[in-house]
Amino acid sequence: MEIITSIFSLSNFTVLYDAFCTAIGGVECFVILYFICLACFFVIGKDYMNDGFVYPFFFMALTVFNPFLIVPLSKVIGLLPRIRRLFWLLPVNLVLAFVFTRSVFAPRKKFLRLLTTVCITGIVIYFGSSVIPQLHMPENIWKVSNTVLQISDLIEEDASGNDLEKSALYSDVELLELRQYNPSIHSVLRRNDLLDWSIDPADEEAVSQVIKSKHVLHTLALVSRYGIEIDPVLFVSYMERVKASYVITEPSRDLHDYLTGTGLEQIGAIDGYRIYRLNR
Asked: How far is CA 226 from CA 53, 74, 170, 206, 266, in A?
């Protein structure tokens, strides 16, 4: 009974309506015009218009736009915070572009075509939003943080100057962009080592089990991810085994004395991150 009540709750309609209002914010007039066009297609449109525009909308209204289906489902799969993105499926721009184009070429006389073009242009200018105030040339065309760019440049320069492998040990999830931006810089820890594997660093027995297991990557993660100072000889041995030349520590992790004590040398500091080189 509780499940049925949650599915048919009127609050589901409210949630979907609020998401819809958020999704169409600033373009309400064009969305209204889109629905008017759909109504015209349904009443006077030809079959291919209904097949291409009206019937797909009816299908979506019964599925992804059905508040009694999509809202309960979204709560289960964790989609609810992003449910407004479903309304991006509406082909508003496509339909309006189709209608405007047909409207321009429908009249046979050139004067009427020109008049229609001017009217449509006026509608777009009046009801649309200018992007000029928000238009700025990007300073970072690679769409990654400047921190990642600077760390990448530092490792590239240092590795080429010392003939070292561009392989780094780090555990900060933010630095996953580093290998996306520069794939030549190898990450010692795999993505699942950063996101899926974990232990309680306060559990001495669990930490001891990781070290005894001789799992190289998890043992290195004890240092970079949890700040656990393992045997320096073991640490350097495992670094050499995976051919890691660099360690990048997180801003919140102070491993300077430990790493320099193992023989690593700090070669730079960028936005709180410290970059160390293993001198072989």
From this structure: 55, 34, 11, 13, 20
Given a contact cutoff of 8 angstroms between Cβ atoms, the answer to whether 172 and 148 are in contact is no
User: Distance between CA 234 and CA 242 in Å, rounded?
Assistant: 13
pLDDT in tens, 115-172: 999 999 998 888 887 777 777 766 777 788 889 999 999 999 999 999 999 999 999 9
CA distance 154 to 148: 10
- DSSP-assigned letter for residue 132: G
Cα(239)–Cα(80) distance, rounded to whole angstroms? 43
**Would you tell me the crossing angle of helices 28-44 and 92-105 to the nearest 10 degrees?**
60
CB 106, CB 115: distance < 8 Å = no
- Buried/exposed 4-33: b ≥16 CB within 10 Å, e otherwise: eeeeeeeebeebbeebbeebbeebeebbeb
Structure tokens, 25: 């914010």
Is-above-0.85 flag for pTM?
Answer: no
| Sign of the C-alpha dihedral computed for residues 58, 59, 65 and 69 taken in this order | positive
- pLDDT tens digit sequence for 64-103: 999 988 988 888 887 888 889 999 999 999 999 999 999 9
3-class SS of residue 262? coil
- As beta bridge partners, residue 248 has 275
Residue 120 near residue 33, CB atoms below 8 Å: no
CB 251 within 8 A of CB 269: no
The string over 148-157, giving b where at least 16 C-beta atoms fall within 10 Å of a residue's C-beta and e elsewhere, is bbebbebbee
Taking the C-alpha atoms of residue 118 and residue 106, their distance in angstroms, rounded to an integer, is 15
